[in-house]
Write a structure and sequence with these properties.
By secondary structure, the protein is α+β, with helices and mostly antiparallel strands. The protein has 18 helices and 12 strands. The protein is 56% helix and 15% strand. The strands form 3 sheets. A 5-stranded antiparallel β-sheet has the order 2-1-5-4-3. A 5-stranded mixed β-sheet has the order 7-9-10-12-11, covered by helices on one side. The protein has a two-stranded antiparallel ribbon with strand order 6-8. Strand 3 and strand 4 form a beta hairpin. Helix 4 runs antiparallel to helix 5. The longest helix is centred in the N-terminal third of the chain and has 51 residues. It is rod-shaped.
Length: 573
């Protein structure tokens, strides 16, 4: 098993170890700057003193002070360039080297200024303190031991004196200072390491939380106790069209009220009564439209003042649309079942009425008025019979013959048929945009053809006479990206018919798929009802959006057959 090397092992291999102490890198550089300045001052002062006593100083003293000054003036600028100009991180080896030089330089100054009686001897305390701050506990004690050893050698051998009580007290002070500063440094280092770990954990938590809140589709908005904006994630900015950078730490309640009075009331109620709102539906004005939004609130109590309030919002337009689709489907099913029976009951007496009127019309004594009235009755009876037949077809609409079909081909054939219809006019432009590959669906060709034909014909007939109108038919197969989350359709494909016509009135949007509802003169109101039934029979969904400025868009989602994408139309047929 391979074991990691200890710091001591790495240091013995010549690796430059970083210094781990309670000091930050900037504070360590500041302390080194003072060390450099003190070092130059000691060497310069020593040389100046030797120069002033030139006549009495020995040649050895003069040479020693000169060498000390030269080495100091060479080493110190190099060290300063590394730590302060180049801003390299001081390693343990670097700091130990500086300590060794300073111990010997200070000992030389002490030796030349009186030895144990020198007034410079207390500088050992400052030197040991400085390096104890910059080195771990063991390093500080090592520097203190080296200072004591060199000082003892100077006192005993250099000065020829013995270690008396004064020297012993000095050595004890040196050791005590090194131990005390080292212990303090160790405690501060441990506390700093723990604080750094906590800061990193908090920073990681903040980043993770920011990533989560920044990417979720749910809007999150937080106001402090004074109603100032504390936080808004991108989803909230998009939903409320609010720039969080502009409003951060500013009173924003009135601005929110302009976008949604319901949101303002929910926030104020939560803050005032300290009761969170579980789930309510509000309306938010967005891009000139009123969007349904579900909102919940939460409170965060503070020691003083009103609590902070967080609103959690989600656009529920798709949910409401799906609920309307479900209700519409249930309503149409009930209408279809009831009306199919009623249509049968009406059709039989209607056939008897038509037969009786025909017999009366053939009587020899029938005058012109009788024949005219009989003709009108027969004409209206035939129209009513056709209408009943269409409605029975609508009620009994089923997928009779299901096979694999290329939805693109159906769309092309349907648009060609509409171009031949009497309602098609020259001011209408009919275009198609189709997926480059086959878009396979399983279904009844006749029903799907009726779906596309009715939708395209409906768009053409809605065009305002004399006004240029564009009708576009699109067929796509791009996976789940374009499907609302609430829809569960496997391998969905999309059929979209859109126009830039006058649009559909908002009050009519809820009824356009109801049987016999039509705003077009002469329309039966069964075209879109048949489309809806046919799409439902194919396990799909149809949605509609309309705006007077942009027109109307019908979107049909159908389950596709991804396994058949590699087949060609001839094989599918």
């Amino acid at each position: 098993m391979i074991r990691a090397k200890t710091p001591e092992q790495r240091a013995s291999n010549g690796v430059a170890l970083p210094v781990v102490t309670a000091l930050t890198a900037d504070r360590r550089r500041d302390l080194l700057r003072w060390v450099y300045m003190t070092r130059i001052a000691l060497a310069g002062g020593l040389f100046a003193a030797a120069a002033l006593a030139w006549s009495t100083a020995s040649p050895a003293q003069t040479l020693t002070t000169s060498l000390a000054l030269v080495v100091t003036l060479i080493l110190t600028p190099i060290s300063y360039w590394l730590t302060h100009v180049k801003r390299s991180q001081p390693s343990a080896n670097f700091v130990y080297g500086q300590a060794v030089f300073d111990v010997f330089l200070l000992t030389l100054v002490v030796h030349l200024t009186g030895g144990s009686e020198s007034v410079v001897a207390p500088f050992y305390i400052l030197l040991i303190t400085a390096y104890a701050w910059m080195l771990p506990l063991g390093g500080g004690l090592l520097v203190a031991a080296m200072a004591c050893m060199v000082y003892i050698l100077d006192v005993v051998w250099g000065q020829g004196t013995t270690i008396d009580s004064v020297v012993a007290a000095q050595l004890a002070i040196f050791a005590a200072v090194a131990l005390a500063v080292g212990l303090i440094t160790t405690k501060l280092t441990q506390a700093g390491a723990e604080l750094t770990t906590v800061e990193h954990a908090l920073e990681q938590l903040r980043l993770d939380t920011g990533d989560i809140l920044g990417n979720i589709p749910t809007a999150v908005l937080t106001l402090d106790g004074e109603g100032r904006l504390a936080y808004a994630n991108p989803a909230a900015e998009q939903l409320l069209t609010l720039d969080s950078k502009t409003w951060l730490e500013k009173p924003v309640m009135e601005e929110l009220g302009q976008r949604s009075s319901g949101l303002k009331r929910a926030l104020e109620r939560t803050r005032s009564y300290r009761i969170p709102v579980a789930s309510v539906e509000i309306r938010v004005r967005k891009n000139g439209e009123s969007v349904p939004v579900g909102v919940s609130t939460a409170i965060l109590e503070r020691r003083e003042g009103p609590p902070s309030v967080t609103a959690i919002m989600r656009d529920i337009s798709d949910v409401k649309r799906m609920e309307n689709l479900r209700q519409r489907t249930e309503r149409l099913e009930a209408v279809a079942e009831l009306s199919a029976s009623l249509a049968h009951e009406i059709k039989n007496p209607l056939a008897s009425i038509s037969s009786s009127v025909q017999q009366l019309e053939l009587k020899e004594d029938a005058d012109a008025d009788d024949k005219l009235l009989s003709s009108l009755i027969l004409k209206e009876s035939d129209r009513l019979a056709r209408l009943l037949s269409d409605f029975i077809d609508f009620a009994r609409l089923r997928v009779e013959r299901s096979r694999e079909l290329d939805l693109r081909e159906i769309a092309v054939h349907a648009t060609q048929l509409v171009r031949q219809h009497p309602s098609y006019r020259s001011e209408v432009t009919l275009e198609t945009e189709l997926h480059p590959e086959a878009v396979w669906v399983s279904g009844d060709e006749d029903l799907l053809h009726r779906v596309v034909t009715n939708l395209v014909l409906n768009a053409v007939q809605a065009a305002v006479p004399g006004r240029k109108t564009k009708v576009e038919v699109e067929v796509f197969s791009e996976g789940d990206d374009f499907v609302p989350e609430e829809l569960d359709i496997p391998n969905p494909v999309l059929l979209r018919v859109s126009d830039n016509g006058p649009g559909i009135a908002e009050e009519d949007l809820k009824r356009i798929f109801d049987p016999f509802f039509s705003r077009r003169r002469g329309g039966t109101g069964l075209g879109l009802a048949i489309v809806h039934r046919a799409v439902q029979e194919h396990e799909g969904t149809i949605m509609v959006t309309s705006n007077p400025r942009t027109g109307t868009q019908f979107t049909v989602y159908l389950p596709g057959r991804s396994a058949l994408k590699t087949r060609n139309p001839e094989e599918a047929a």
